[in-house]
Amino acid sequence: MSFAADRAPAFLRHPAAAPVGVFVAGAAGALYLYGTNPHEPGHWLPRCPFRLVTGLLCPACGGTRMVYDLMHGQFTTAWHDNAALLLAAPFALALLGRWAYEGVRGRRWRPSFGVRGQAVILGLAAAWTVLRNVI
C-alpha cells in the first residue's frame, strides 16, 4: 500500500469499498442513461475520444447506446449497436460480481489473465475494430 492509502479512513481500505464504489457509480450512470436517449443528439453523454480523433469506431463504440437499448428491452437494437460488447458483457458482469463477492467477504481479489488470455482479448478487440470499420 502507498503512503496515502495508509492514511485513508478504515472504511475506504476495506476490500469491498472499491466494488461498492463501482456499483454506486454504475447505478448513478444507469439511472441517468435510462431517461436519456443516446440515439438522439443534444444530451450530456461522453463521446468516444478514439472516434473524435480518428473518425473510426473503437471496440466499445456503441456501448452507451447498447446499454440504453438493453434497459428498454430492445435486444435487437442493442445487438446492432455493438454485438461484441453485448457478448462480452456477461463475462464482465461475472468478474464484477466475483470482485464484489470477495470484497464483502473481506478478501481482496484481482483477476489474473495469463499472457495467452491477454493476447486473445487484445486480438479479439483488434479484429472487432477492423471488422466493424470495414463492413
Order of helices and strands: HHHHHHHH
Overall mean pLDDT: 91
Q: Which stretches are low in confidence, meaning pLDDT under 50 for 5 or more residues running?
A: none
Instruction: Please identify the structural class as seen in this structure.
Output: mainly alpha
First-residue to last-residue Cα separation: 47 Å
Number of strands: 0
**What is the tally of helical segments?**
8
Can you summarize the main beta sheet?
none
The 3D shape can be described as globular
**What share of the residues lie within helices?**
55-70%
Query: What is the percentage of strand-forming residues?
Result: under 5%
Taking all Cα atoms into account, the compactness measure Rg is 18 Å
Brief account:
With 135 residues, the protein is mostly helical. The chain is 67% helix and 0% strand.
Structure characterization notes:
The chain is mainly α. The chain is 67% helix and 0% strand. It has helices at residues 3-7, 10-13, 17-34, 49-54, 63-71, 75-81, 83-104, 115-134. α3 packs across α7 (83-104) and α5 (63-71) packs antiparallel against α6 (75-81).
Write the layout of secondary structure elements.
Elements: H1 3-7, H2 10-13, H3 17-34, H4 49-54, H5 63-71, H6 75-81, H7 83-104, H8 115-134
Structure characteristics:
mainly alpha; 8 helices; single chain; 135 residues
